[in-house]
């Protein structure tokens, strides 16, 4: 996608409309008053198309009117539009202007392009406008979101047969449905917790369930957990970019060990997803490290994500700024993106595979975390405090039947 220049108006309406200067009889400076209706009083409204903002402003008073053309200054800000996860827009009907001068009311006439003449436009994201300076306009360069790979372009990768040949074994916990927004099931005698962590449920219309099915065992005695993720979340335009939560299998054994003391992190993630509507989300591994044992949420921590499958064009934090590094591991090529989570202040580094894995991933995740240490992002003396595998969900109707084996040795 070619970059486009999007011109966005600043917060000050009068500055944005660039009112011209006047010749005045009395030489007194006019008083400018801006009035507006509260949003709660406006039952319906349109937003301000940036391209329709005026190039000229005309004012008429009791003298001969003067027309002044105001130049437009374009300034690029460091915050990319794609990094603004939520924003409000300027309702056109709430902006009314009257200019008063010595008891006389000036009539303000503003000209601009008609909406019918604007082929495409954006609205003003308030949060993306810098607060340290006053700008007339600034530019935003949109980025192209990746198209999810089909099975024909899946990563070429050979999975060990032992994991795939696992069979069900008797287990004391029966199959369990979990549809509460923070339901968690700890599996006795196993290193895992089955979690339905819908941390943005207040912005979700619908339901997500993360169900425990059974425990499997390979011929080599390796245990696996079989589980099902059922997503029925309505696509709402205001929240399409909001991750509603994380349906996952978390590891609870051998955490809080220093990275240098960990011998291996064998991982196996197999899935079979059926999407009955458009679905947006991603299958990934998520790990957190920290300089201090037991720390998993302070700003001193680092979060690492390994994205193995994407649906609906989902991209990670920092994607708009481009990759910071590339890697070859697990039989595939990867790009690393980084950015700060605005909610937690934690730096997140996400590895995206160039070609989606087609239903299964297997590898030693110690190789991945060691590569992060080799790059200097963390120290080998840092502790691994969180590890899990699952799906970030945004919206859609889908069922995923999955099997995970994840251990820290």
In short:
The protein contains three helices and 22 strands.
Describe the structure.
- With 409 residues, the protein is mostly beta strands.
- The chain folds into two domains: 13-139, no CATH class; 151-406, Jelly Rolls, CATH 2.60.120.
- The chain contains three helices and 22 strands.
- It has a 15-stranded mixed sheet that branches. A five-stranded antiparallel sheet has the order 1-5-6-2-3. Strands 4-7 form a two-stranded parallel ribbon.
- Belongs to the glycosyl hydrolase 12 (cellulase H) family.
- Keywords: Carbohydrate metabolism, Glycosidase, Hydrolase, Polysaccharide degradation, Signal.
- GO terms for molecular function: cellulase activity.
Question: Can you lay out the helices and strands and say which pair or pack?
Answer:
Blueprint: H1 13-17, E1 31-35, E2 56-60, E3 67-69, E4 74-76, E5 96-101, E6 104-110, E7 137-139, H2 161-164, E8 167-169, E9 182-186, E10 192-197, E11 206-217, E12 223-233, E13 245-251, E14 257-258, E15 266-275, E16 280-290, E17 302-311, E18 325-329, E19 332-340, E20 347-353, E21 360-364, H3 365-374, E22 383-406
Parallel strand pairs: 4-7, 17-20
Antiparallel strand pairs: 1-5, 2-3, 2-6, 5-6, 8-11, 9-10, 10-13, 11-12, 12-22, 13-22, 14-22, 15-21, 15-22, 16-17, 16-22, 18-19, 19-20
List the keywords.
disordered N terminus, 15-stranded mixed beta sheet, 22 strands, Jelly Rolls, mainly beta, 409 residues, 2 domains, globular, single chain, five-stranded antiparallel beta sheet
